[in-house]
Amino acid sequence: MTHTPTAPARVLIYDPTLRDGHHAARHQLDAAQLRAYAAAADAAGVPVVEVGHGNGLGASSLQIGRARLSDDEMLSTVRDALTHSKMAVFMVPGWGTSDDLRNAVARGADVARIGAHCTEADITERHLGELREMGVEAQAVLLMSHMASPAQLAEQCALMAGWGAQAVGIMDSAGHYLPADVTERISAIAAAVGVPVIFHGHNNLGMAVANSVAAVAAGATVIDGCARGFGAGAGNTQLEVVVAVLERLGYATGIGLKALLHAADIAHEKLMPAPPIIDSVSLVSGLAGVFSGFKKPVLQAAEREQVDPVDLFFALGQRGVVAGQEDLIAETALRLKPQAGV
Amino acid sequence: MTHTPTAPARVLIYDPTLRDGHHAARHQLDAAQLRAYAAAADAAGVPVVEVGHGNGLGASSLQIGRARLSDDEMLSTVRDALTHSKMAVFMVPGWGTSDDLRNAVARGADVARIGAHCTEADITERHLGELREMGVEAQAVLLMSHMASPAQLAEQCALMAGWGAQAVGIMDSAGHYLPADVTERISAIAAAVGVPVIFHGHNNLGMAVANSVAAVAAGATVIDGCARGFGAGAGNTQLEVVVAVLERLGYATGIGLKALLHAADIAHEKLMPAPPIIDSVSLVSGLAGVFSGFKKPVLQAAEREQVDPVDLFFALGQRGVVAGQEDLIAETALRLKPQAGV
Question: Which UniProt keywords apply (chains A, B) (predicted)?
Answer without folding.
Answer: Aromatic hydrocarbons catabolism, Lyase, Manganese, Metal-binding
